[in-house]
Structure formats: structure tokens, C-alpha cells
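Sample entry (243 residues):
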Amino acid sequence: MDFAKTYTDYCIQAFSMAYQKNKEPIQKAAQLCYEATIHDHTLYTFGTGHSHMLGQDLYARAGGYAKIYPIVEIELTLATHPTKSTTIERTAAYADVLEHLYDVKEGDVVFFASNSGRNALVVEYAYRLKAKGVKIIAITSMKHSSQIASRHASSKRLFELADIVLDNMAPYGDAGIEIDPNHRMGPISTLTGCYLSQCIMGAFVDLLIQNKKDAPVFRSSNADGADAYNKELFETYVIQKRR
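Predicted structure, serialized as C-alpha cells:
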């Protein structure tokens, strides 16, 4: 097997399916972000393990909307230990830490990225935010999540709590290419998840521009003349928010 060719074909098909399946949710999510923003609410992202990368891909980057903020602590990534985030995402009480650190309020919007949508922290945090009147956009694998049991006491999965659900089209187990009967490689959830997130943000910023609203977007820091432009955005939207 030519793995690179097989995986390339698989990714192209997955992106096409993700677009076709999610055309309506993308527009609904963009509208939700627009309504929140024009009423002075805040956009956030949240994910654990590899799913945290969807939020990082939207945050403070070239071509990225300047007023979106990640809810992420290093313990929820793989930066310090490969299984630490797995342990924490199964611990519902860690939501206490997130609520202490991040002042997410009624009317705000949170992008939740979770391929399985089953783990206790993800579900618990979603429950708590919903109780505050926060809107949740979930990016998840419906094929995977619909086949498994929740690890939260409520027995709920993320897609059952979200206001808008986008299907990343990942297969059960995420990896899509069978190497032999015992091994699969070629995960897809990060690729399609980032793609769907960027689709939402592009559609959302387009709404801002169409309606003549403030639409701050970063330029590449490696493009000539971008530093002064980005510096103003960082000082206005990023540094002030983190204080």
C-alpha cells in the first residue's frame, strides 16, 4: 500500500464529507458568534488532549480573528506528560479549576472540541456553562460518540448538551487507514476539526464585515509591515483580556 496516497485520498474525502454534512451548522454557528459579539459577549475555545489544538489553531495566529480566547491549561495538553491530560479529562471536579480561572459568563460562546465527547470533565464543564446561559458549539465525531457510553454521572455525551453540533466525520477510534488487521493509522479528527473551526470563523467574520462591524484579524508576523499592525491588535484584544 502507498500509505501517503491512501491517506491523502482519505483526507480529501473526509474534508468533502465534513463540508457537505456541516454546511447548515457552520452558518448557524457563525450567526451565533455574530449575535454574541455584537452584544459584547466573548468567544472561547475548550478542548483536552489533542483536541486542545483546535482552539490553539484559532488563537492569535495569522488569518485569525483577534477576539477569541482559549480555555486551556498546560495540564490539559500533552506538553508535560503523555497521559496526564487523559487522567484529568476523566476527572469531573477539574471543572472547579476552570471555573476559578476563566470568567465565562451568560451569553458567551464556547467552542467545545472533543472527538468522543464522553469524558467526565468535558461533560461536567458543559453542564456548568449551560447552567450559566453560555452557548456551546461542539465539534465531535458522531460515529464514535454515538457508539459509546458517557463517563459522566449524567450518562450524557457532549453532543447531547450542545446548542450546535458539527460532525468531524472521524471514524470510531479516529484512525482511518488499516495497516493490518490489528493496526490503524491516519487520524483525521484534528484535521477536520480545525477545518470546521476555521470555516465557522471565516463565515462569522464575513458577517461582521457585511454588517460593518469591527472585525480584527491578525496578519502573519513574518510578513513585511505586519508587526505594527499586529501589535495594536495584541494590546487591544489579547493582552488586556489576559490581565
